[in-house]
């Protein structure tokens, strides 16, 4: 995706605003001698920004506006280290709601729908993003927030909710609960807007079947508005994103060099009109690619592919680089295994070991399945893990994001 003349003009305006504000990023641009961005070469010479920069800005050093213009702050989910705080102006809040409204619209959701929102509210951007977009659309909002599954199901039945907003983990938990109680004929769900974590085909199919819905993947991150900057469509082939608000490039995670459309790499986002905390060439660590062909759905906005994981979730074991998605792809090739798994890395007697816990439907022998999975990991990736096959429902379900990789080697 080459940057267009109109996008370049907006980037140039953002750079001018940052420099004039004298905030953390403005000072960095000044130090780098950047005064204007007139060509694509100028743009590609701009320095990257990282989450670490945002931590260095704590609490409000990222703000590019007068404090009186800030109407809200959000903070990214994360349990360790200095929090990342992002300030929003009234225009930012409205722009974000407009992007989310477009997401609902692309998913065929209308003002006639009843949208039950289960992600968390508060500092996290999820719940309030789902809500603002739904209100702009004119739909009825049921702002449940996370947890209290009993009440979620009651409202789903009594209010005949048609759309659910959820993390994939909680969507799975609800699907399993509805199946367990035999409630499918009591609910009116038709669609799910699901986000916050990468998830495989097997988990997606279980949620679709369990809730009887079509699923749309929502994309976003707190640093860049929040969820709603992109969504999948009925073609189920990648996610459209709003290139009048964002410029997305894909770079090599190792070198930072831009990659051509169609090649996999790290998503880097530049906000084109954001006021409170404009970001230039922000490295997300999310791995995807730009899909270079027009979408069969007819939507003209560009697409990125479904996320393949994160460049920073790679682990090294026995000198081999392993991404959780590689393990996930192997597990998906075994029909008797469920979508749920856990990877635990430990250091025992002088060597690293990987243990994989995975659930099965019980149609095949546990030990034989474990041996077959271990052999397939060895064949495809190059080392032999310890595999433990457990019964369906043994691994924890989450109301938020499911943690799948536990590195206990250095604890």
Automatic annotation (TrEMBL):
Membrane-spanning ranges: none
Pfam families: AMP-binding, AMP-binding_C_2
The organism's place on the tree of life at top rank: Bacteria
Keyword field: Ligase, Phosphopantetheine, Phosphoprotein
Residue span(s) of domain AMP-dependent synthetase/ligase: 59-270
GO molecular function: ligase activity
Matches recorded under CDD domains: PaaK
Residue intervals of the AMP-dependent ligase C-terminal domain: 319-409
Protein name as it appears in the record: Phenylacetate--CoA ligase
Lineage: Bacteria, Bacillati, Actinomycetota, Coriobacteriia, Coriobacteriales
């Amino acid at each position: 995706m080459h940057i267009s003349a109109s996008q370049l003009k907006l980037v140039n305006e953002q750079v001018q605003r940052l420099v004039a504000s004298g905030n953390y990023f403005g000072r960095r641009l000044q130090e780098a001698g950047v005064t204007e961005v007139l060509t694509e070469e100028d743009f590609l010479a701009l320095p990257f920004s990282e989450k670490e920069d945002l931590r260095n800005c704590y609490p409000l050093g990222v703000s590019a506006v007068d404090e009186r213009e800030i109407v809200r702050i959000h903070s990214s989910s994360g349990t360790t280290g200095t929090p990342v705080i992002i300030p929003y102006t009234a225009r930012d809040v409205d722009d974000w709601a407009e992007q989310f409204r477009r997401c609902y619209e692309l998913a065929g959701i209308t003002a006639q729908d009843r949208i039950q929102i289960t992600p968390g509210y508060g500092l996290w951007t999820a719940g309030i993003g789902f809500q603002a977009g739904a209100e702009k659309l004119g739909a009825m909002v049921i702002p449940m927030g996370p947890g209290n599954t009993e009440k979620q199901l009651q409202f789903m039945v009594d209010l005949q909710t048609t759309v659910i907003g959820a993390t994939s983990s909680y969507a799975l938990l609800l699907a399993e609960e509805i199946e367990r109680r035999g409630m499918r004929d009591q609910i009116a769900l038709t669609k799910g807007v699901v986000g916050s974590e990468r998830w495989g085909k097997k988990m997606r199919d279980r949620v679709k079947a369990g809730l009887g819905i079509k699923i749309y993947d929502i994309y976003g991150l707190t640093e860049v508005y929040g969820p709603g900057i992109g969504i999948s469509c009925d073609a189920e082939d990648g996610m459209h994103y709003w290139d009048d608000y964002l410029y997305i490039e894909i770079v090599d995670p190792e070198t930072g060099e831009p990659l051509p459309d169609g090649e996999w790499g790290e998503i880097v986002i530049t906000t084109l009109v954001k006021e409170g905390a404009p970001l230039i060439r922000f490295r997300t660590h999310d791995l995807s690619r730009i899909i270079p062909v027009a979408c069969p759905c007819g939507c003209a906005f560009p697409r990125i592919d479904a996320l393949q994981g994160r460049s920073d979730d790679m682990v090294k074991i026995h000198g081999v680089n392993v991404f959780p998605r590689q393990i996930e792809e192997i597990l998906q090739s075994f029909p008797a295994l469920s979508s749920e798994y856990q990877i635990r890395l430990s250091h025992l007697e002088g060597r690293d070991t990987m243990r994989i816990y995975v659930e099965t439907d019980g149609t095949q022998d546990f030990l034989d399945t474990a041996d077959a999975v271990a052999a397939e990991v060895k064949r495809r990736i190059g080392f032999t893990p310890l595999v433990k096959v457990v019964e369906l429902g043994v691994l924890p379900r989450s109301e938020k994001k499911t943690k799948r990789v536990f590195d206990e080697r250095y604890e």
